[in-house]
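We were asked to recover a plausible sequence for a given structure. The inputs and outputs are reproduced exactly as logged, with field labels preserved.

PROBLEM: sequence recovery
POSITIONS: 236
GIVEN STRUCTURE:
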């Protein structure tokens, strides 16, 4: 019996490196992908991360307190509840969120995410994204630190040496490309992330949960049409 031909399923994941729901949504997608493979769904997954800036007003030259930023945005009482909810939700998929540490503008992280894809496609980009997600959200690393970003880039294979990664970060390479992709996302009407575009046809907004993503994969494998999914109220 001939093997079933796999259907290509591209997932363009528009995200920001400081969005906790982007890390959560990515983890949910990967769990759903593994479940789809166990079910032998005839899908060949292709993932690519694309940039978005949740807060362009954040400084790039100095870090700010992550916790103080959230308290200022939501108020202390509401943030405390949201923090506990997010920690519990993350723990369910193997993420240990910390809301301590610092935050700043994420353009440099996006430049490296694009560079990773240019160097080695999904095989390099995903390990780099996973490294900066884990560092920022779980280990209180500074997402704007060139040292941190360079170390992640070398670990993922974007560059062979830290000096090369630091030289890239000191340049303006891919800055215009990142800006163009962000503008394209805004023209598409993307206001919050994660925002996942499947096969350039279907859009899923928000961290919908691994069960929802798996059901979407089942429908696409069967050739069914999808309605656009959305999720409001992300704490980003």
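RECOVERED SEQUENCE:
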């Amino acid at each position: 019996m001939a093997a079933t031909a796999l259907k290509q399923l591209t997932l363009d994941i528009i995200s920001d490196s400081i969005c906790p729901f982007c890390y959560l949504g990515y983890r949910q997608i990967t769990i759903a992908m593994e479940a789809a493979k166990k079910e032998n769904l005839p899908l060949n997954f292709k993932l690519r991360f694309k940039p978005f800036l949740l807060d362009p007003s954040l400084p790039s030259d100095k870090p700010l307190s992550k916790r103080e930023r959230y308290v200022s945005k939501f108020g202390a009482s509401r943030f405390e509840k949201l923090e506990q909810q997010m920690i519990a939700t993350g723990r369910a998929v193997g993420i240990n969120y910390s809301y301590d540490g610092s935050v700043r503008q994420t353009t440099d992280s996006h430049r490296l995410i694009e560079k990773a894809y240019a160097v080695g496609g999904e095989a390099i980009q995903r390990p780099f994204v996973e490294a900066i997600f884990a560092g920022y959200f779980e280990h209180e690393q500074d997402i704007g630190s060139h040292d941190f970003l360079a170390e992640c880039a070398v670990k993922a294979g974007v560059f062979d040496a830290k000096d090369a990664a630091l030289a890239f970060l000191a340049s303006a390479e891919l800055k215009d490309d990142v800006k163009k992709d962000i503008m394209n996302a805004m023209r598409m009407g993307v206001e919050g992330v994660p925002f996942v575009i499947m096969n350039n046809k279907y859009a899923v907004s928000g961290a919908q949960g691994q069960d929802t993503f798996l059901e979407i994969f089942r429908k696409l494998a069967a050739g069914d049409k999808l309605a656009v999914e959305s999720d409001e109220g992300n704490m980003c």
